């Protein structure tokens, strides 16, 4: 079966900002949006941590440290000026991993809240204000996780911020609806991205995924890009405050049911 995406200009004439664009999922979103004809402002950490590889007439890269408010404000102004008022924001940047609840220090907690929640809030609010001022509507896609609803060991501050993203998404959807801005979240499950290394190929975890995920395998970042594309395009006219879960059926199934 041919499952390769077939780009056909679904975002022609659109301007998109993507945070976390140097990462696995943000990178796939950036790539797909470019293929679909959008102009993309790719935002991520500068330097060795977040080097952004794209170059060309359709794309501008802007360094941002979402943990730093002053830097974030300046970077967002640069992003907004690059191609004019954006039609789309995909907020994919985040710190992943985490600590167990008992081991999570104030510094651990603050760093995750700063990037994952406050950074997402600031990016979404500034872009939404630009969309409202331009009075042309828009689409905002946040990236939560199945951890927005389900916890796991040793990830207390991560899952707490992802739960926050779920409600922030709904709050934005409600407050921005009358401005024609639709806001939705994608909730990835286990997605095989470079920053996860070989994790999903280790035999123990691969066997466990075969039991825990209805489709029996991890997803690809391109699977998240497909969902983000639907939520970002004009054809999505009535889905807002909602979530597309991209988890291969992980959260639809009682653990071990596939054994
Ligand atoms: N991969 C998965 O299995 C999975 C599952 C559920 C949810 N997610 C979510 O998907 C999104 C993308 O994750 P990914 O798997 O592609 O991870 P990733 O680590 O490859 O990408 C995250 C990106 O965020 C950037 N980032 C981190 N701190 C930043 C900061 N202070 N300022 C600016 N950028 C910063 C990183 O540089 C990185 O490029 C995240 O929100 C993550 O929580 C991923």
UniProtKB/TrEMBL annotation:
Keywords assigned: Oxidoreductase
- Record field: transmembrane: none
Asked if the record carries the keyword Chloroplast, the reply is: no
User: GO MF annotations for this entry?
Assistant: oxidoreductase activity
- Keyword Oxidoreductase recorded: yes
Family matches, as InterPro entries: NAD(P)-bd_dom_sf (IPR036291), Sc_DH/Rdtase_CS (IPR020904), SDR_fam (IPR002347)
Write out the similarity annotation. Belongs to the short-chain dehydrogenases/reductases (SDR) family.
Return the PANTHER family for the record: DEHYDROGENASES, SHORT CHAIN, ESTRADIOL 17-BETA-DEHYDROGENASE 8-RELATED
Query: What is the designated name of this protein?
Result: Enoyl-(Acyl carrier protein) reductase
Record the organism.
Answer: Bauldia litoralis
């Amino acid at each position: 079966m041919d499952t390769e995406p077939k780009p056909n200009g679904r975002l022609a004439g659109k301007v998109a900002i993507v945070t976390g664009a140097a990462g696995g999922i943000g990178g796939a979103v950036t790539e797909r949006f470019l293929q679909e004809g959008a102009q993309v402002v790719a935002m991520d950490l500068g330097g060795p941590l977040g080097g952004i590889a794209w170059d060309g007439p359709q794309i501008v890269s802007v360094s941002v440290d979402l943990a730093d408010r002053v830097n974030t404000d300046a970077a967002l102004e640069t992003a907004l000026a690059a191609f004019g008022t954006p039609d789309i924001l995909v907020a994919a940047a985040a710190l992943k991993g985490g600590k167990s609840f008992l081991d999570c220090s104030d510094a651990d907690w603050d760093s995750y809240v700063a990037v994952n929640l406050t950074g997402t809030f600031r990016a979404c609010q500034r872009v939404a204000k630009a969309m409202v001022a331009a009075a042309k509507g828009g689409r905002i896609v946040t990236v939560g996780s199945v951890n927005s609803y389900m916890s796991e060991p040793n990830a207390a501050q991560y899952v707490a911020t992802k739960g926050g993203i779920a409600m922030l998404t709904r709050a934005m959807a409600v407050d921005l609806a009358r401005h024609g801005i639709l806001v939705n979240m994608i909730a990835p499950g286990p997605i095989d991205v470079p920053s996860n290394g070989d994790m999903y190929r280790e035999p123990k975890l691969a066997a466990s995924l075969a039991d825990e995920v209805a489709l029996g395998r991890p997803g690809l970042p391109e699977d998240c890009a497909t969902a983000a594309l639907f939520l970002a395009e004009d054809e999505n006219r009535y889905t807002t405050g909602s979530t597309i879960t991209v988890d291969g059926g992980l959260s639809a199934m009682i653990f071990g049911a596939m054994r």
